[in-house]
Amino acid sequence: MPEGHAIHRHGRILTALFGGDAVAASSPQGRFAEGAALLDGLRAGRAHAWGKHLFWPFLSTSEQAAADGIPTVELGDPQATWLHIHLGLYGKWAFAGPGVAGLHGAGIRVSPTEDSGMRKTIDGGQDGTTRLVEAAPAGGRDGLPEDNIQVLGELATTPTTRLRLAGPEAVAQLTGPARCEILSGEEVLGVIARLGPDPIRNEEGDRQRFVAGARRRKIPAGQVVMDQAVVAGPGNIYRADCLWRTGISPLRPANKVSESRYRELWDDLVLCMGRDVDSGIIVTIPPEFQPDPIPEGDPELSRFAVYHRTGRPCVRCGAIIREELMAGRRLFWCPGCQR
Fold first, then answer.
1. d(C-alpha 296, C-alpha 294), whole Å
2. Are 75 and 46 within 8 A, CB to CB?
3. Element (H, E) at 270
4. Would strands 92-96 and 130-133 be described as parallel, antiparallel, or unpaired?
5. Residues 137 and 99: beta-carbon distance below 8 Å
6. 326 φ/ψ angles, rounded to the nearest 5 degrees
7. 149 three-class SS
8. DSSP for 68-124?
9. Which residues lie closer than 8 Å to 186 by C-beta, 6 or more apart?
10. CATH topology for 4-191?
């Protein structure tokens, strides 16, 4: 499942490709036919992300746009028709059209066909929560696939295409999402009310809200960081490495972690996740702990401090990194310097 930084990045891509344009919407699979009919002919606004949820407003073509031509509305605006998407484990976006030529940055790679150039990610997942589709230019583009963006040569609908959107400059297709639905503004606010603060948004009062929510829990701190009702967006990588960066043991009861340490953790999530939206690559190991060259057999050390480094020495204290299951998810930590 993509972590929150990827959803914010997806929102930027969708806004760049479709913002301000009227879209033609359809559901080749048929499961979202009624929702697609509601979007058809509406103008795309600026997409919002909150944790792992995407909220995308669509408005009538008569609605006034901002100076850049893209309608900007507040989350939950009752005048908008809201598309709510949660990719879950299997959701994927694919994009095509001349507009994708202007998209750059880490995570974008070129492959001439849909099944070529696919690589396994470090955690064993398959690339592809997002694909950019265009004819491959000579030499291609460089970049790591943490954001799961690919550039391919051809895009066609499939029986699993839940939603297809077409605008003047791009086509987007969505397959396999856990949630793809039309919501009212009130329903959008209802979803957000069940979520914790998002470190990438980092709105006023969010840090204290996170601290208070975490300290009310008696479950392990490592479980709290994955609880989207406490903090929205972090997944397994940020959980592992941001706890390591702040020296907090994931096994410590959440209500036994001090307020000051939680404030430090929040600030670190803000730093790491916000930075990774721009780069498209999760890199959580501090530069001062990253060896040069990277030891053979330890490629994870180029980006992570403890994530997926079971049985290898901690770069801070030398203790051996451990792994266990916590609430059904793999947990990585250092028993020597996380307390």
1. 6
2. no
3. helix 259-279
4. parallel
5. no
6. -130, 115
7. coil
8. TS-----TT-TTSEEEEEE-TTT-EEEEESGGGGG--STT--B-SSTTSS--B-TTS
9. 76, 78
10. N-terminal domain of MutM-like DNA repair proteins (3.20.190)
Beta partners for residue 320, in sequence order: 313
CA–CA separation, 269 vs 199, rounded Å?
6
Domain boundaries for CATH 3.20.190.10 within the chain: 4-191
Q: In the chain, helix, strand, coil percent, each to 5?
A: 30, 20, 55
Rounded distance, CA 230 to CA 227, Å? 5
Are the beta carbons of 200 and 273 closer than 8 angstroms? yes
The verdict on whether omega for the bond into residue 293 sits within 30 degrees of 0, i.e. cis, is: yes
Q: What is the pLDDT of residues 70-125, one digit of tens each?
A: 988 999 999 999 999 999 998 988 888 888 876 655 344 433 334 333 233 322 22
Q: Residue 219 in 3-state DSSP?
A: coil
Region of 69 (left: φ > 0; alpha: ψ -120 to 50; beta: rest) is left
- Rounded (5°) CA angle 44-42-188: 65
Fold of the 197-333 domain: Helicase, Ruva Protein; domain 3 (1.10.8)
Q: What is the pLDDT of residues 183-231, one digit of tens each?
A: 999 999 999 999 999 999 999 999 999 999 999 999 999 999 999 999 9
**Greatest CA separation found in the chain?**
63
Residue 39 has φ and ψ, to the nearest 5°, of: -85, -25
Spatial distance between the Cα atoms of 3 and 5, rounded to a whole number of angstroms: 6
Q: What is the rounded distance in angstroms from the CA atom of residue 288 to the CA atom of residue 304?
A: 13
Residues of the chain with CATH 1.10.8.50: 197-333
The type of residue at 142 is D
In this structure, what token pair is assigned to residue 323?
């792994």
Measured distance between the N- and C-terminal CA atoms of the chain, rounded to whole angstroms:
28
